[in-house]
Amino acid sequence: MNRSKVAIISPLIIIGLGFIAAFLFSKLINEWAFIPLALLYWGGSFAVSYRFLGRELFLQLFARPQGKAVWPVICIIAGFIPLPILLMNLDLLNSFTLIILWLIFSAVNPFFEEIYWRGFLLTALPFSKSLAVVYSTLLFILSHPLMWGVFSVANRSWMTWVSLLIMGIVWSLTFIKTKSLRWCIASHILVDIFNLSVFVFLNIYVPPM
Questions:
Q1: What is the distance between the alpha carbons of residues 58 and 63, in angstroms, rounded to a whole number?
Q2: What mean pLDDT do residues 197-203 have?
């Protein structure tokens, strides 16, 4: 199968397998299913990206950003949108173990998600740039309720979907304009920290519905 077909089909396969994994693991370990799900999700999406981009194109994803400085600025500003969530829920940060897991997840997850959803898909999809952004962003949004949302209430919330829509578009346009994932990853790290990612997975933080 060529790269273009893989780019079209693989998100559906990854989401489908992610749903099955989330469902099965949640039956065994409840919300802690986020750990094996993350490992499988990261491994699968990375394998697809590296295999079908090839080493040279893969490394280019991390090249020095090009273009005007406005896009990095917009990208980082977007990363601060969920900051109020953290500031209003500092009292939840009362477990050393959860804080470590939260920081590790927030540092690691953005690399794998940006490599796949922005780097691979926006490079390999056989569509116009606009349609590629729409396709990758919509499936990026869909992955959250169908994977993480199996056990996480917040990932089934329309508020989360709106946030994902904004972030997905900003990160996609930043990658297209700068030809690099550097600022996308930096912004994504901020988002995963500020939105209390692990606390959301464990339903310790549930946003207003």
A1: 10
A2: 98
